[in-house]
Amino acid sequence: MTRYLFRRTLSLALSLLAASLVIFLAIEIVPGDPASYMLGLNASPETVAALRDQLGLNAAPPARYLSWVGGMMRGDFGISYTYRVPVADLVAQRLQVSLPLALFALALSALVAFPAGLLAAARRGRATDTAIMGATQLGIALPNFWFAMLLVLVFALHWRIFPAGGFPGWDGGIGAGLAALTLPAIALALPQAAILARVLRSALIETEGQDYIRTARAKGLTRTQTLIRHALRNAMIPVLTILGMQFSFLLAGAIIIENVFYLPGLGRLIFQAITQRDLIVVESVVMILVFAVILVTFLVDLAYALVDPRLRRRA
Amino acid sequence: MTLLAVRDLSLRIGPTPILSDVTFDIATGEVFGLVGESGSGKSMTALALMGLLPGTARTEGQAHFGDIDLLAQDDAAMTRLRGRDVGMIFQEPMTALNPMKTIGDQVAETLLIHRAASRADARRVAREKLERVGLPPDRFPLSLYPHELSGGQRQRVAIAMAIALRPRLLIADEPTTALDVTTQAQILDLLQGLVRDEGLALLLITHDLAVVAGMARHVAVMQHGRIVETGPVERIFRAPGKDYTRQLLAASDHRPARKPQMPTSNPQALLSVDNAVREYVLPRPSAFAAHPRLRAVDGVSLAIRPGESLGLVGESGCGKSTLTRAILGLDALQGGTIRLGGAPVIAGRSMSPTLRARVQAVFQDPYGSFNPRHRVDRLVAEPFHLIGLPPDAEDRIAAALEEVGLSAADRHKYIHEFSGGQRQRIAIARALIIRPDLIVLDEAVSALDVRVRAQVLDLLARLQESHGLAYLFISHDLSVVRAVTDRVLVMQSGRIVEAGETARVFASPEHPYTRRLIAAAPTIPDAWKEHAHAD
């Protein structure tokens, strides 16, 4: 287990290093001067020179790379050019929305997908299975912004249970914050739940064909018992993979839903930064997202080992 | 006293009839053998008794077990019976256990699922049963996972699971087919001990007549979903009443007619392996320890003369496959040399195709060793890439197919249109087409039914004589090696522990390991055979 952990950690560090190099090269080394790009066509040469100086662009690329990475390690992500505040603060603020939203959506997705996938697998080929599979097909096909608008119409405008948009912050209490995130989380969770349920169903069905399931039946387990006691854990590996990918996506990919509900999340931050040519924010936020994705992958790898004893061999 | 009385059991899956009028009796505490070739319906009979058939299956007839009819029970009733009154073990121990659960939990589950014990009691019983099947808790704690055990040990766990609630009937479906011969002997011993000590009856399903001869009191012979013949084992073996049984018995120790090659006839070696060494690096036991090494082939030397049949026997993991790969020039050695007709065999591109063309191979799995998307002519012509496509390729493909007993027209078919035995003939045609000097037969007849195996062995003997081929015959099956080789090498832990003329080695083995192997191989008593052959 120690060795597994050590190797995963090493691969995590190496991936981060590689990612930081690619991002740095893409933004700073490719032709075109970041400073004049950020200022637009009409900027005077003096302003450009001043910005170049402020951004430290006059130093050699290796030195710039080291100072950028070194800064990030200390938690210094630079100062946003458009907002004039430290990028770290901006990101921290946005994460207060994006992280709970992603977790909320993920929890909802799992909550729906596990019973649906199990039920469909247990009733394979029967009406329940067909109904669940039909519903998941619909869940994948529906654009989530359309579903989001539907949710707003029904739950915010008609019944007035949840707010239609905006985010009051966590200062006003957890209840108000969660209420603001509920509809967006449902809209985000729907397609994810549909995919997850299908993956779980097919993983379960594949596992059910294994010899050890037949052994379990020969011991006197019912089909449902074999499904829950033997098949479920063996079917978890693909499910964990999908869950990890979904979390990474939810963290930054919720931009359309954030726009529908006027939520100040990470997705909107990066979108605005790109349209405003704020390369400092872009560079740092992308790096943070990469870090999040790699960290999630790392956690998923650890979860594999928790599920599957063969991956934590003591040698 | 009759424990199980099966009467007129018929089974259809969809429109296809699988079993017809299967009738037999198993007495309390006896071993009952059910033998037949693959597809004869042995396993289906067992699954029907267990109520584990696929959903589309329809059964008729009765199976009286005590005062209940197993075939008339609904699934809930069968669930209560399974594991409690009837236990079952299967062929493939490597996949029969859940890889995610400890062996203790899996044995205890049998008790827990039937609410036969509290959690603590179930673990205590699990410990006892594992000890009973030869896995004492000091060396095999309950917390082990299946992947930490060998195939034989896993089969012991499966047996412990099946007997945890002391069922009256244990169904064992090819329980030792996937195991080495010495492990097979141990597992059969264990099963026999359980029958004796626990008073359970054993329905032993196998394709191996020798296993039945050593174990069972009564036997039923199955073919095409019917019972051809049933009765006491000795009577059936001594005086089979039906042609099919006679054919099976004859095929099971079939010896092809072949002229033995005398050692003096041709002293020049075709293939010589000199002091071959191949090591594998294993994962580190801890973060800072050195990599341990496994010497899979440890200083092996051997020679094959033209036209000779050399056998190589040994159990799984002894290094047979590693050595074979080196001889075929697929894997590099770390020490020693392999020469083919005087030229060195080296893995990789530096070995010339014409040299490679002198050795061909036939492998075990007749299903996995062909690309299913190619037609037979393309499959058989594959070795031509070594020597270039000759102008008469078409004729040679046709000739090769006819030589192995197929027709020239078969070359337009795809591989799924052939049976296992036919596929193995196609594999031989593929090896033969470029006229090699040596064919490596790696468990080439192990997956075949006895009658088909006898035919393929005859074919091999005939081809050897007409083409002057040399064979390296690698097998775990001692009886086959004994029947078709001139000399034999016995391999253990990467070394050749005994070498000599086949007849001599089998008659008076010198090395203790050889003796153990020969003793462990199940045989039909000679006294029974004479009568059968006199027929």
Automatic annotation (TrEMBL), chain A:
PROSITE patterns, per database record: ABC_TM1
Which key words are in the record? Cell membrane, Membrane, Transmembrane, Transmembrane helix, Transport
Query: Where are the bilayer-spanning segments?
Result: 101-121, 142-162, 174-197, 235-257, 285-307
**Which CDD domains does the UniProt entry name for this protein?**
TM_PBP2
Domain ABC transmembrane type-1 residues, every copy? 95-300
Record's InterPro entries? BPD_transp_1_N, MetI-like, MetI-like_sf
Q: Which Pfam families match?
A: BPD_transp_1, BPD_transp_1_N
Q: How does it sit in the membrane?
A: Multi-pass membrane protein
Q: Which SUPFAM superfamilies match?
A: MetI-like
Give yes or no: UniProt keyword Transmembrane helix.
Answer: yes
Give yes or no: UniProt keyword Transmembrane. yes
State where the protein is found: Cell membrane
Q: Which family does it belong to?
A: Belongs to the binding-protein-dependent transport system permease family.
Family matches, as PANTHER family: DIPEPTIDE TRANSPORT SYSTEM PERMEASE PROTEIN DPPB-RELATED (PTHR43163:SF6)
Q: What protein am I looking at?
A: ABC transporter permease
From the broadest rank down, the organism's phylogenetic lineage runs:
Bacteria, Pseudomonadati, Pseudomonadota, Alphaproteobacteria, Rhodobacterales
From TrEMBL, chain B:
One family name in Pfam for this protein: ABC_tran
Under SUPFAM superfamilies, the record lists:
P-loop containing nucleoside triphosphate hydrolases (SSF52540)
Q: Where in the cell is it found?
A: Cell inner membrane
Q: Which domain of life is it from?
A: Bacteria
Q: Looking at the keywords, is Transport present? A: yes
Q: Where is the ABC transporter domain?
A: 4-249, 271-518
Keywords (alphabetical) are: ATP-binding, Nucleotide-binding, Transport
Gene3D superfamilies cross-referenced by the UniProt entry: P-loop containing nucleotide triphosphate hydrolases
SMART domains tied to this protein:
AAA (SM00382)
**Can you tell me where the transmembrane regions are?**
none
Membrane topology designation = Peripheral membrane protein
| GO MF term set | ATP binding
Q: Please state which protein family the record places this protein in.
A: Belongs to the ABC transporter superfamily.
Q: What is this protein's record name?
A: Dipeptide ABC transporter ATP-binding protein
